[in-house]
Design goal:
A: about 375 residues, 6-stranded antiparallel sheet, 5-stranded antiparallel sheet, B: about 150 residues, 4 helices, 6 strands, about 15% strand
């Protein structure tokens, strides 16, 4: 029995209709005798021959086909021949010199089954994963499913982080040379920030406080982990320098509200005046000056521990309001380095608190009679008068 | 007619004298303003200086006052009561505006700033005059606290 495989898959196919004990062999393709030697394959597209498809006395089906030891042969089966037949691989073997055979152990339980044999070159790559058919055979991996490709031993996942970032700024990080099926995990080694939209080797990173941040990526490929890291210097939005506010006549004509909003008016600006709703006097609590500031374009409700989600950073900047009950109010502003500064009325601007200590947190700094109210975000469109 | 000329002459003389010495000692109304340095957001309270004798005394001793320091102490710029600004004092031969705090007279600004020890007790006279002003309790209390602290130091 000789038969040509179909040209598309370089295979041959036969139909065995097993009904009860009767074996029916229905050739699908025309029979063509091969002229060349089975072990001198010069044209991979050329058909090869199935020599036999026999049913044994105990009911098993034995396929026999012409083969060569420099090729692989995969036997596939299907339950039906349809427009899009689903061929299931059953066995893969290196060909013998002359003939190869395979016995279907499941044939006994089947009423009908179709077979085909696919010839594969050693150096070919059925699934295009970079691993040759022969290597896949030797590893026992699936010829038709791409396998993770181990990265070179000296490989490092490469990604770039901007050298300097602003709090709240989003930077998309991507491992640019990741191998196929590489699985990467992003972590923050130092500093404050978080990752969003993480999809395998890509993520969005947003720093949430100033200082140095170190981002690490660990990529696992074929069971091996590869790591790399990058650093960035993170700052809050830069404001006009403190000394600028201590020159004449700037110092005498601009107060804490001017300084903290970073808007010079030379009018000793008051919350709400520019917005048309001046703060009610006296400030019995935080509400009047907060409301006035809001009408000027500031935004309340800022959580200092979650600035990225509760403020408009990296645009604008952050200030804090404090109130001396029934007497006065005070604003302080967050500098680029994460410390706080303020300007007491028409005195020079300073980074010190009432005790002469650097102001690290307006909630805990010694600011005399002034009590902390809350943090606000100064929109880039804020205006004061 | 002679009487009228006499009265006119006396009047001219009075105005001329007054014009020549607008900030004469003991004058009740001067345009010298004292600003209490205390607020951050609000404008500071002020009053017109009543007793200008301390200014004259300061002027007479100004050249003899020793230097207190060269760089302004950092706590001079923090919140709370931080002394007085005396403004429009040029009529007394003093700087147009100067500050007095912790017994030190500060004139000039930045690199040109001078800090001289106030040996004339001008600061105390300003504290005393502030007590006569209609100040709100918080301001009055802050000055009183400062005065007590200063006395304790001395």
């Amino acid at each position: 029995m000789r038969e040509q495989g179909d040209a598309f898959a370089h295979t041959v196919a036969r139909r065995y209709s097993l009904i009860g004990a009767l074996l029916v062999i229905l050739p699908i393709n025309a029979l063509i005798l091969r002229a060349d030697s089975p072990c001198a394959i010069t044209n991979e597209a050329q058909a090869f021959v199935i020599r036999g498809a026999a049913r044994t006395v105990d009911g098993q089906v034995i396929l026999t086909w012409e083969s060569c030891p420099d090729h692989l042969y995969e036997v596939q089966t299907a339950e039906n021949i349809l427009f899009q037949t689903l061929w299931m691989p059953k066995t893969l073997m290196i060909g013998s010199n002359g003939l190869s055979s395979w016995t279907d152990p499941e044939a006994l339980t089947r009423g009908q089954r179709f077979y085909r044999v696919q010839r594969l070159t050693f150096g070919g790559d059925e699934d295009g994963d970079g691993v040759s058919n022969l290597d896949e055979f030797n590893r026992g991996t699936d010829l038709h499913k791409p396998e993770p490709v181990p990265a070179p031993s000296n490989w490092q996942p490469q990604f770039s982080l901007p050298a300097s970032m602003i709090v709240g700024q989003t930077s998309t990080l991507q491992v640019v040379d990741a191998p196929q099926n590489c699985n990467c995990q992003w972590t923050l080694v130092s500093g404050k920030g978080f990752f969003t939209n993480t999809v395998n080797c890509t993520t969005d990173f947003r720093p949430s406080w100033s200082g140095a941040v170190t981002v690490q990526v660990a990529c696992a490929s074929a069971g091996v982990a590869y790591t790399n890291w990058a650093r960035a210097a993170v700052a809050f939005p830069a404001l006009s320098p403190v000394p600028y506010w201590n020159d004449l006549p700037v110092q005498y004509n601009n107060n804490c509200y001017n300084f903290s909003t970073d808007i010079r008016t030379d009018t000793f600006a008051q919350p709400g005046v520019a917005g048309g709703h001046p703060a009610v006097w006296p400030p019995h609590d935080c509400q009047p000056d907060t409301a006035g500031a809001i009408t000027d374009g500031l935004q309340a409700g800022v959580d200092i521990d979650d600035l990225c989600r509760t403020s408009g950073l990296p645009g604008g900047h952050i200030v804090a309001l404090l109130v001396w009950q029934d007497v006065d109010y005070h604003f302080v502003r967050l500098e680029a380095d994460g410390t706080w500064s303020s300007k007491a009325g028409n005195l020079p601007a300073t980074r010190l608190d009432y005790s002469g200590q650097p102001m690290k947190d307006p909630r805990t700094a010694n600011l005399g009679s002034y009590r902390f109210c809350g943090f606000l975000w100064v929109s880039p469109n804020a205006h004061v008068r | 007619m002679k009487t009228a000329k006499l009265i006119l002459g006396i009047a001219i003389t009075i105005f001329a004298v007054a014009g020549a010495q607008p900030f004469a000692a003991g004058a009740m109304d001067t345009n010298v303003t004292v600003e209490i340095i205390i607020f951050s957001g609000r404008r500071n309270p002020t009053w017109q200086l009543q007793d200008t004798k301390p200014l004259e005394k300061l002027k007479s001793k100004m050249k003899e006052l020793p230097e207190a320091f060269t760089n302004e102490p950092p706590h001079w710029s923090t919140l709370g009561f931080k002394g007085f600004y005396v403004c429009n004092a040029e009529g007394f031969g003093l700087p147009s505006q100067f500050r007095i705090y912790e017994g030190v007279v500060n004139s000039g600004h930045g690199k040109n700033a001078k800090y001289l020890k106030d040996l004339t007790r001008l600061e105390q006279s300003l504290i005393d005059e502030s007590k006569k002003q209609p100040l709100e309790p918080a301001v009055r209390n802050a000055i009183a606290d400062y005065e007590r602290a200063r006395r304790a130091e001395q």
